From TrEMBL:
Subunit structure: Homodimer or monomer when oxidized or reduced, respectively.
Reaction(s) catalysed by this chain's protein: L-cysteine + L-glutamate + ATP = gamma-L-glutamyl-L-cysteine + ADP + phosphate + H(+)
Source organism (scientific name): Rhodoplanes elegans
SUPFAM superfamilies, per database record: Glutamine synthetase/guanido kinase (SSF55931)
NCBIfam families: glu_cys_lig_pln
Protein name from the UniProt record: Glutamate--cysteine ligase
Protein keywords: ATP-binding, Disulfide bond, Glutathione biosynthesis, Ligase, Nucleotide-binding, Transit peptide
Length: 456
């Protein structure tokens, strides 16, 4: 998230929280596509993580991007922590360990999201190259220990860093050593939101396998294909997971509000100050009884910021976020929105996808999610492998994108962006398995070549 929401409208009741989600509904002709992607910056000379300060650090990188783009800086005290395009809505932000994220502007077509990505990377290289900085598209930092990684000067991350070890063993690894690519998509009604949420939750392990790209930790194979996905299984059970209740009768905005109210808070922000309320209840803030802010009631800012600290496999905000995929080399990044747009923005495909998953039990969905970080395409559900499901859903996505008939200036439709996934399912091997083959073969048991072959 690039910047915290600033809207001090007081919340009067639970109904205001429900209305906040409902306000995200859009007519189908206004549906947009948002892509968020993170990458690891590193020193080209030594393949080390960047500090924040210094002539070749994160601050210098952000200041250089500001000069090129003319975007508004996002400041925290004296520190620049991001940039925002106030015209189109895109932003650049920092994850806790300096992972560099582009939160793309809402676009009409995948062609536009791809053009945005290419422009971003070209601008980034223009600034980074003189500084000796490269960028890596992997789901997990392949060689660095946590102690080597600089902590970004953001108040919310300080609070999260203190809280994570209390609720899981791997939360700090999630914060400092992982990267993801996400797609954000719209819904037209509460019923449309529920159907898309259920389909994308059930199929999220398929996307995890298709993008599995984190088999190394501290220079060695870690036993997983997507260790980034495995990390989430032991980060914080209160705010992550497969949300089995979302498939129960009565699911809607109100049920999500009740879930979010039960997720412990991290912080409340007042002015430039982050107040540590980690583990406390938003219900108390809503009622004006939070001990850290006695007599003070919640605002829309508080609610929006709290929602941004909930991390299930699919997250509801005023749109739906697909959160199950590892970061990958840049040419494959547009494949994620292509996959989900083809499935969810086509009514026939949304129905077809629901037919695939509707008979799965909560236990089966959870088992699939638990298997996929280690097994990838070999994970199974209801007698089918994820590879079978990947082949079927990628084919559905192709048909859905073809029916959208969104062409670029060369007359090409959006199906071209599925090519990396079609290649993967044809070979039946995840990106991580390709990396492991190189490690055990051409790379001679070293991870270091990844910084050259997989750099942006």
């Amino acid at each position: 998230m690039a910047r915290d929401v600033i809207d001090m409208t007081p919340l009067q009741s639970r109904d205001d929280l429900v209305a906040w989600f409902a306000a995200g509904e859009k007519p189908k002709d206004k549906f947009r596509i948002g892509t968020e992607h993170e990458k690891f910056p590193f020193t080209i000379a030594r393949h080390e993580p960047l500090p924040y300060e210094g002539p070749r650090g994160i601050r210098a990188l952000l200041e250089g991007m500001q000069m090129i783009l003319g975007w508004e800086p996002i400041m925290e005290g004296e520190h620049i922590i991001g940039l925002v395009d106030v015209t189109k809505g895109g932003a650049i932000s920092l994850e806790p360990g300096g992972q560099f994220e582009l939160s793309g502007a809402p676009e009409v077509t995948i062609h536009q999201t791809c053009s945005e990505l290419q422009a971003h990377l070209a601008q980034l290289r223009e600034v980074a190259a003189p500084l000796g900085i490269g960028f890596l598209g992997l789901g997990m930092a392949p060689t660095w220990t946590r102690t080597e990684i600089a902590v970004m000067p953001k108040g919310r991350y300080r609070i999260m860093t203190g809280y994570m070890p209390k609720v899981g063993k791997l939360g700090l690894d999630m914060m400092y050593r992982t990267c993801t690519v996400q797609t954000n998509l719209d819904f037209s009604s509460e019923a449309d939101m529920v159907k898309k949420l259920r389909v994308s939750l059930a199929l999220q392990p398929v996307a995890t396998a298709l993008f599995a790209n984190s088999p190394f930790t501290e220079g060695k194979p870690n036993g997983f294909l997507s260790f980034r996905s495995e990390i989430w299984r032991d980060t914080d059970a209160d705010r992550s997971g497969m949300l089995p209740w979302a498939f129960e009768p009565g699911m809607g905005y109100e049920r999500w509000v009740d879930y979010a109210l039960d997720v412990p808070m991290y912080f409340v922000k007042r002015g430039d100050r982050y107040i540590d309320v980690a583990g406390k209840s938003f219900r108390d803030l809503l009622a004006g009884t939070l001990d850290a802010l006695p007599g003070e009631r919640a605002t829309l800012s508080d609610w929006a910021n709290h929602i941004s600290t909930i991390f299930p496999e699919v997250r509801l905000k005023r749109y739906l976020e697909m959160r199950g995929s590892d970061a990958v080399p840049w040419r494959s990044l547009p494949a994620l929105p292509a996959f989900w747009v083809g499935l969810l923005y086509d009514d026939a495909n949304l129905d077809a996808a629901w037919e695939i998953v509707k008979g799965w039990t909560a236990e089966e969905r959870q088992s699939l999610r638990d298997q996929v970080p280690r097994l990838g395409f070999k994970a199974t559900i209801a007698g089918r492998t994820i590879l079978d499901l990947a082949r079927e859903t990628v084919a559905l996505a192709r048909a859905g994108l073809a029916r959208r008939e969104k062409q670029d200036w060369m007359g090409r439709d959006e199906t071209r962006f599925l090519a990396p996934l079609e290649d993967i399912v044809e070979r039946g091997r995840t990106p991580a398995e390709e990396l492991l083959e190189k490690f055990h073969g051409a790379w001679g048991g070293s991870v270091d070549p990844v910084f050259n072959e997989y750099a942006y």
